[in-house]
Every structure is written in C-alpha cells, then in structure tokens.
Design brief:
The chain starts with a helix and ends with a helix. It is built from eleven helices and twelve strands. A four-stranded antiparallel beta sheet has the order 1-2-3-4, covered by helices on one side. Helix 2 packs parallel to helix 3 and helix 3 crosses helix 4. The chain is globular. The chain is α/β, with parallel strands linked by helices. The structure holds zinc ion (ZN). The site of zinc ion has 9 residues, from loops. The site of zinc ion (ZN) has 9 residues, from loops.
C-alpha cells in the first residue's frame, strides 16, 4: 500500500536529478523545455521548492508531475517509475482501487487544454522528410494509403532532430492530440506530446467506416495499428503501458453495444501486452485473442515477416 508518506518521499527527490534521469540536459538549473519547441533553455528548476517552470509555455509542477508529463505516464506509473529509479521500495501490487480512484477524482495535471488551432495546419498538407519516409516505407513497409489516411507528417526541430508527427482525432475528426516520435534510432526522448494533448485511443475516425458485425482490431501503440491497417484490417490503438482510463473503457463499451462489433487482438509477447489483453477483456468479454508466432514480439514483426 502506498502512503502519503511514500508519495512525499518521491515528491522530495531532487528535481534536477530526476530531470537528468529522464534525459534532460540540466545546466545552471536550466534545461531546454521539452513541452514546447524550445531553442534556448526556458525550463527553470527551483531547487528550494523542488519544482520546475517554463517561462515560455508555463509548464510547471513538481517531481511526479514532471515524470507524468514528460513520459506521458499516469500518476501511478510515474510513482512507479520514480520508485524504480530512486531505489525506494513501494509495494505497487498492493495498490488499492480506492487509491486509484481517489487520484482519478483529483486534478494532477494542472496543464492547459490542448490548443488544436496551433497544430491543425500541420496536417492539412502532410510532408514526409527523408527520415520519415525511410522509417514508414522502408523499415515498417507501410501502405502509402494508410500513411495518408493517418495524416502522418514530419518536421525537424532547431537541433536538427527529425520527428514523426502522429495526429490523434476524435470520432468526428477533431484534432485532440499529437504524438511526436523521435526518428533518430535510440534518440532521447523517444516521444513528445504537446501540452494538454489527449493521446489515448488512436485512430477513432476508423469507427465511422465499420459495418455492423465487422472485426475491429485493438493494437498496442500507433505503429502496430499502422501495420494492422496496412494488412487490410480495421484497427484502433491503445497506448502501451498506459492503464486504461474510465473514459476509454466507457468508449469501448459503448462501441461494443451500439455497433455490434467483434473485437480482436494480437497481444504483444511480453508482460505488458498480456496485461493489456486481460484488462481489455474485462471490458470486452468477447475479445478474441490471436497468438503471435514464436519469434514475433508484436504484430509489426508478423506483418514484416509476411511481406
Ligand atoms: Zn516550455
């Protein structure tokens, strides 16, 4: 059971060291802000208060909030990450549901709402740079029409790092979030999300194309979703290693009842994949499991194997 005392211990971990552990380069109590396209270090650490604040985009908070926002983790996942990283021992298996729901009720994000108008234009005429083309078409062998449907685009930051931008839309086609993926192999951070972005269930517009009785695949993460789509399936994705929120579960439930869909999944061949499948099956008892063959850790592997 995690106690307020344990949370306080995590919250008191030195913030500059936590930032360093996340991969931020901290110098003179400052770092490049990962929450906006920063060129001069605007993220400032206040060691006395053990907090950070960006004077450009106004992202701010404490240690746990920094991990949540930067790694796109839930509160509990951020605590787990900090606890693993700090070596402190917290028994996460004994987390009570009461505790989780307490946190769902209170607001920890403090972040501004996602400003779609700032970003929507990037996806009107998607542009793929060489790094993005190599990643999508050579490495992942994705279908060009899928890439177009998903409106994937790319850009380079001021340090010359190429990023693949994946827009998240709601069912009505409104932009609700963006995932930026670092296209440099082993580059850090691997993902970035603009402030307030809602990157929960991916590819919701596909729901409008489904006919009653059709099968909808559920993937773990965008890239497996692209492979499933390229293989001719209809698919949505749920972010990996992220606990399903109540809102996500409600959406899936309403789909299963209103559209009489069949749900299917190729769980990743690892512990998080198995956990995600079991969590989903609680919400969707009819969820069909497809087993990946030996040697394929996820559907993308299988897709590449068959090509
Ligand atoms: Zn900022």
């Amino acid at each position: 059971m995690i106690s307020k005392f344990d949370i306080q211990k995590l919250q008191d971990l030195p913030i500059e060291q936590v930032a360093g552990a996340l991969g931020l380069h901290v110098s003179h109590h400052k770092a490049l802000c990962p929450f906006h396209n920063d060129s001069n270090p605007s993220l400032t650490f206040h060691r006395g208060k053990n907090r950070y604040r960006c004077f450009v985009c106004d992202a701010h908070g404490g240690v746990i909030d920094l991990v949540m926002r930067y790694e796109h983790k839930t509160f509990l996942e951020a605590c787990k990450w900090l606890s693993d990283s700090s070596g402190s021992i917290i028994d996460f298996d004994k987390f009570s549901n009461q505790f989780s729901s307490d946190f769902e009720r209170s607001d920890h994000s403090q972040s501004k709402p996602f400003d779609a108008s700032r970003y929507a234009r990037f996806f009107e005429r998607p542009l793929l740079n060489d790094e993005a083309k190599r990643f999508l078409f050579e490495e992942r062998k994705l279908n060009a029409r899928v890439v177009q449907w998903c409106r994937l685009t790319s850009w380079k930051d001021k340090q010359g790092v190429p990023w693949l931008q994946t827009p998240y839309y709601d069912r009505e086609g409104k932009l609700i979030g963006i995932q930026n993926r670092n296209l440099i192999k082993g580059g850090s951070p691997r993902f970035r999300f603009p402030q307030g972005a809602s990157c929960s269930i991916y590819n919701l517009p596909v729901l409008n194309l489904l006919k009653p009785g059709e099968t909808l695949f559920i993937a773990e993460g965008c890239s497996d979703c692209w492979s499933l789509l390229s293989a001719g399936h209809k698919a949505i994705a749920i972010p990996s290693a992220t606990l399903l929120t109540k809102k996500d579960k409600d959406l899936l439930l309403s789909l299963s009842s209103s559209l009489s869909l069949h749900f299917a999944m190729y769980p990743d061949q690892d512990e998080p994949g198995e956990r995600l499948f079991l969590q989903l099956r609680e919400v969707l008892p009819s969820l069909v499991r497809y087993q990946l063959p030996e040697g394929c850790k996820d559907f993308s592997d299988l897709y590449l194997l068959k090509r």
